[in-house]
Amino acid sequence: xxxxxxxxxxxxxxxxxxxxxxxxxxxxxxxxxxxxxxxxxxxxxxxxxxxxxxxxxxxxxxxxxxxxxxxxxxxxxxxxxxxxxxxxxxxxxxxxxxxxxxxxxxxxxxxxxxxxxxxxxxxxxxxxxxxxxxxxxxxxxxxxxxxxxxxxxxxxxxxxxxxxxxxxxxxxxxxxxxxxxxxxxxxxxxxxxxxxxxxxxxxxxxxxxxxxxxxxxxxxxxxxxxxxxxxxxxxxxxxxxxxxxxxxxxxxxxxxxxxxxxxxxxxxxxxxxxxxxxxxxxxxxxxxxxxxxxxxxxxxxxxxxxxxxxxxxxxxxxxxxxxxxxxxxxxxxxxxxxxxxxxxxxxxxxxxxxxxxxxxxxxxxxxxxxxxxxxxxxxxxxxxxxxxxxxxxxxxxxxxxxxxxxxxxxxxxxxxxxxxxxxxxxxxxxxxxxxxxxxxxxxxxxxxxxxxxxxxxxxxxxxxxxxxxxxxxxxxxxxxxxxxxxxxxxxxxxxxxxxxxxxxxxxxxxxxxxxxxxxxxxxxxxxxxxxxxxxxxxxxxxxxxxxxxxxxxxxxxxxxxxxxxxxxxxxxxxxxxxxxxxxxxxxxxxxxxxxxxxxxxxxxxxxxxxxxxxxxxxxxxxxxxxxxxxxxxxxxxxxxxxxxxxxxxxxxxxxxxxxxxxxxxxx
Length: 667
Fold this sequence. Notes:
The strands form 15 sheets. Strands 2-12-11-4-8-7 form a six-stranded mixed β-sheet, with no helix packed on it. A six-stranded mixed β-sheet has the order 14-25-24-17-21-20, with no helix packed on it. The protein is built from three helices and 65 strands. It is mainly beta. 3% of the residues lie in helices and 50% in strands.
């Protein structure tokens, strides 16, 4: 035995349609001859609109096979219906109860009814002998859900509107049903504007002024003769709870008051809730800035007369005649010439040493295109997005990106340590690579050293790994000037074999300044690129740092690598002897290992330090010093207790627990 049903949404009123109920008797389960007696009992507060005894039985109960003659009415009232139909031992026997056909089987739902409409179904199997076979089969089936049908109106965020402008789009208004057919055919919803300063635009009638939902609710718009009242008439109701939306267009008359623009919602249907919605706001027009990608290439640093993207100033209303727009360039950038303005009669004036442009509109407009904007970008301009800043009483405010500034090339090098007061010291190679094809020119490039540093000799260079060439004017100078002959692709120039004479007073980074017409025809005397390829330190000063567990360490800020990492044992830090000594300023030739005696000797100036593997006695110029840790061999390397070694070589040793870093400073 199987019961099934459908659910419908209903109201507490007469003539409501409930869902259907099916009773399916399985022929295999009940393979007997006889009759099925099926009874439906409506719940409290629910009655048939017409007593089944007075109506056509097939409108209340029928076999889906379509033969209503098989079903007989046994008893009925306005709340109960019992039918009987013969069992079929060859197939399932099915009957369907209906609560909607031709209005006879619809129901009247009173205010005392529950919100859940549950119909009780009782089935008895009666044999041919008139006796019941088995017990009753019963089920409570939900066929109705009471809902309150209503329609609510809501609006999107109010749109900015301008005085004396037609066909302005206002906020979309959406009508939402709580249940299917809350709106029925010919229902009318009225949308009324607040005064004669506002009129509905016919644009809504000729464009897609209505947006329909998914379930069949449709309607038509019309505007009355005053143009203050808009009517939405329902053409067809919905199958399920639906929405219908109106996208309004408004004409705002001259002299219209500033502030909110409201619309009052009323209806011919009591189900539509009265409302007042804000759909617009009259005030100064909202102005936006945008760009059109008219520049196909990046803007080069240190180059004049470069075209940037055109800018569009657009308002949702009309910007009045004589309003002004001021455009300011960032530091390092100036306007080159006078940009063009699309509004006829406008004046465009560069000022403030061409760092700004002042536009006065010659006519009212809601869209202004500013084109032919050219700029000079000097060597001090910041790399990255080029932003122009807008201001003025036209309402155009904010920054807009009109291009991207890139250097004509990049310069890279590895900083090599050199010693102050020493000549002919090898520095790092320098590589200059174009940012894009032809961003550098076939012209001179100049490399200038800081005061106190000179080129020891001429050095080499190659273009795109081509033939080796040699400078001709570098020796003994703090600059070198080279004429480059470049191709059309992205070129790379490598300078190598560079050696420096470093004055004894010079310390710190050796920063090479690159200039010349190859990097900039407009600013050939200005430094365009900078790169550090050496770091000068004093002959004796050493600032070193070692991180426990790392094979990388620093001496005077220059990273170096060792083949074994320091470690901590019994609270003491152990360091590979060779690298600790080198960091303290000991020449490699003065690091001596006696494999027979297992002794390390370090000589620095007039100081001789000796330690023996496994012994806690250290000799400094022959004088014994007792340590609390002994040197040892680990991973084939001699490891010394770092603090004792550093102090013995005249260094100040420090320890940072958080970063696990040992420092050693030698003056």
